[in-house]
Amino acid sequence: MSNMGKHSNTGEVVSITNHKGGVGKTTTAINIGAGLNMAGKNILLVDLDPQANLSQSMGIMEPPEANIYRIIRGEAPVTPVVILPGLDLIPSTLDLSGAEIELSGEIGREYILREILEPLRGRYDYILIDCPPSLGLLTVNALTASQEVIIPIQAHYLALHGLGKLTEVVEKIRRKLNPDLKIGGILLTQYDSRKILNRDVETTIRGQFPEEVFNTKIRDNIALAEAPTQGMDVFRYSPKSYGAQDYGALCGEILTRNGHQRSKPGNIGKHSNNQK
Ligand SMILES: Nc1ncnc2c1ncn2[C@@H]1O[C@H](COP(=O)(O)OP(=O)(O)O)[C@@H](O)[C@H]1O
Ligand SMILES: [Mg+2]
Predict the structure, then answer these.
(1) Is 28 within 8 Å of 154 (Cβ atoms)?
(2) Which amino acid residue places its CA nearest to atom 25 of ligand 1?
(3) Residue nearest to atom 5 of ligand 1 (CA)
(4) What is the pLDDT of residues 195-253, one digit of tens each?
(5) For the chain, which domains are there?
(6) What angle do helix axes 157-176 and 137-145 make, rounded to 10 degrees?
(7) pLDDT in tens, 48-89
(8) Which residue's CA is minimally distant from atom 6 of ligand 1?
(9) Which of 38, 138, 171, 260 is the most exposed place for a label (fewest CB within 10 A)?
(10) Helices 25-38/242-257 angle, 10° precision
């Protein structure tokens, strides 16, 4: 694909991925998007899940003409919906569930989303892709379009197993399709420190992925589940909740890590001098 290896000062494309459902992908996409937006960043959210939870959580109940399915098929212009100043959304629709099969025979099928998003990168600081709960062609498209992947997981032993599979896929995509792809971070979600299992799994996973696991954990917090029913992010719904505190801290960590420090040990959580 045309000279995409070149570095330019354009937006980071970040996939929020885990093939397991219910781990907090959509919640993370909404609240990182909102939190970074409150920090003054221009954000585009891309709903790549046919279940369209992200779109619905942002108050888009009926998909507009320019939904991700029609855009991927080349049938609609790339016109994001403006949710708030500096926070745009490309909504999804149930039709997207047919896309994997429809696109499977196309040449360059892994690069479709990358080509759609590339011209938008100049307009945004971050483009966040909320992935479906699978490792199919849609997720492959998201990872091929991204510089980073954020992996939300629940602190269960089974999650560790799934994580191995997912990091293998990330590695394979880096080798074959997208050399720029990095693990931006592994995020512990729905965390309850009273549960010994949660604490044990945290220790194991930090041991296995010392650089990748975010310092910030997202606690189990009801405000995070309630906010989308009101079409709100957690900062607007309940600014003092644990959910708002945790996603606020995570956004701070993302901004500090600056997306390019991941490979150097010892930088996590520290302020890096003078980037930008
Ligand atoms: N930290 C949390 N505390 C409490 N509930 C949460 C938390 N994170 C997510 N949820 C809830 O758990 C369910 C699954 O989260 P969701 O973000 O939709 O996961 P995914 O997109 O991975 O399927 C949703 O009902 C959501 O509101
Ligand atoms: Mg989801």
Answers:
(1) no
(2) 225
(3) 225
(4) 998 999 999 999 999 999 999 999 999 999 999 999 999 999 999 999 999 999 999 99
(5) 12-257 (3.40.50.300)
(6) 60
(7) 999 999 999 999 999 999 999 999 999 999 999 999 999 999
(8) 225
(9) 171
(10) 70
Identify which ligand lies nearest to the alpha carbon of 49. Answer: 2
Residue 30 exposed, middle or buried by CB count within 10 Å (0-12, 13-18, 19+): buried
Q: What is the DSSP letter of 10?
A: -
Strand intervals (E) in the chain: 12-16, 43-47, 81-84, 87-90, 126-130, 148-154, 182-189
Q: What angle do CA 91, 237, 51 make, to 5 degrees?
A: 25
Tokens of 50: 């046919």
Q: What is the pLDDT of the chain when averaged over all its residues?
A: 90
Q: Residue 11 has what DSSP assignment?
A: P
3-state SS, residue 227: helix
Amino acid letter at 98?
G
